[in-house]
Amino acid sequence: MEAKPFHIRVAEPVLDDLRTRLRAARWTNVTDDPTWAAGTNRDWLRDLVSHWLVSYDWRAEEERLNALPQFEAQIDGDRVHFVHVRASGARPVPLLLLHGWPDSFLRFHDVWPLFSDPTKHEGDASDAYDVVVPSLPGFAFTGPLRRMRPDRPARASARLIWRLMTEVLGYERFAVAGGDGGSVIAQCLAIEHPEAVVGIHLTDLGWHALDVDPKSVPPAEHRYLDAIAKARRADGAYALVQMSTPRSLAAALNDSPVGLASWIVDRFHAWVDGDLDARVGKDHLLTTIMLYWVTQTIGASIFSYHAEARSPSLTTSDRVNVPVGLALFPKDIGGVPPRSFAERTLNVRRFTQMPRGGHFGALEEPVLFARDVVEFFRPLTATTQPLRTARMARHVSPRL
């Protein structure tokens, strides 16, 4: 198996069709409430769509993305798209970064330079990483697997990504960092392939960790579970829809770019710490939305909610025994869990409560995130040599 260079080039008729749909958008008038209390703010969405039509330049974004070292690999008939940034320095550590929903590999756009060339960012050459950022199965240019597997989808994704790292790229051992769905896949990797995983760094515990009877835990953990339950009641309808009827929702989102934007932007607004424009920006949001639109992967990306609800990849009886670092951001869903709660399922070696930031920690606070990742993995890799094998000669990524 070999990796081949990948370049994005969306056909012009796809963009023409998008512009036609945006111009013909039918706007709702559910309520005059100027807040986001009932969902995406209508005026903010109108501004976003106007920016999309008038100012946003997909071709410029495409060129910017194509400046990245992107590749694709075929593994038993399934395509995996990934960014592979090779590090400066004599002894880089392979670092696998895993995103979640509703974002993409772009979650890590601002952090991979901090990992791959730390000396340019007030870091030490000994902390250099070869960075691998795949589009997860179901997302963007990886797209759906040949068969939409209804059984333990995060396990299936973990096995595919393990093969990418070991069989395609030739890394014998590597570090992993992930959040949201990426947290679950990272834990699956650590459980199924502890010989290959140096350690995992997470920004949340994963949804399976919450399936605990609140009456069976100490008061501090009980309060955390109550906070999660309150958050789910107030803002969890999106997950219930995606778990129960993803095809019904996908039919609408795949047909309407305004509907797709509204659904995705609502999640970013709910989960980002602070002002959406200031913390993320319209161009980044639109590029994220475009990655779903031009690949038509919104349905595949939300199907995992349905599949995981019926066949969980992890349960509270599963335990990660490789070293685990946690960087927990205060404005993430439900806030920061007690360390004792995390230790129920994880071998916690580092527990950091971040001073600010929300669900998209690597995107919102790239420096804080990268620093915590480096400090967690430094002692784990000081005496461990994660190796490249001879297979790396087949695939050479340029340094940025």
Secondary-structure map with pairings?
Elements: E1 3-5, H1 12-23, H2 42-54, H3 58-66, E2 70-75, E3 78-85, E4 93-98, H4 112-116, E5 129-134, H5 153-168, E6 174-178, H6 181-192, E7 197-202, H7 219-235, H8 237-244, H9 246-253, H10 257-271, H11 276-279, H12 282-295, H13 298-310, E8 320-328, H14 339-342, E9 346-353, H15 361-364, H16 366-381
Parallel strand pairs: 4-5, 4-6, 6-7, 7-8, 8-9
Antiparallel strand pairs: 1-2, 2-3, 3-5
Helix pairs in contact: 5-6, 8-13, 9-13, 10-12
The CATH class assignment is Alpha Beta
Number of domains: 1
Predict the CATH topology.
Rossmann fold
Give a short account of the largest sheet: 9 strands, mixed
Radius of gyration, in Å, reads 20 Å
Fraction of residues in β-strands: 5-15%
**Structural shape:** globular
**CATH architecture verdict:** 3-Layer(aba) Sandwich
The secondary-structure element order is: EHHHEEEHEHEHEHHHHHHHEHEHH
Annotation, overall tally of beta strands? 9
Class derived from helix and strand content: alpha/beta
Helix content: 40-55%
Q: What's the number of helices?
A: 16
User: Which superfamily, in CATH terms, is the homologous superfamily?
Assistant: Alpha/Beta hydrolase fold, catalytic domain
Low-confidence stretches at least 5 residues in length (pLDDT < 50)?
Answer: 389-394, 396-400
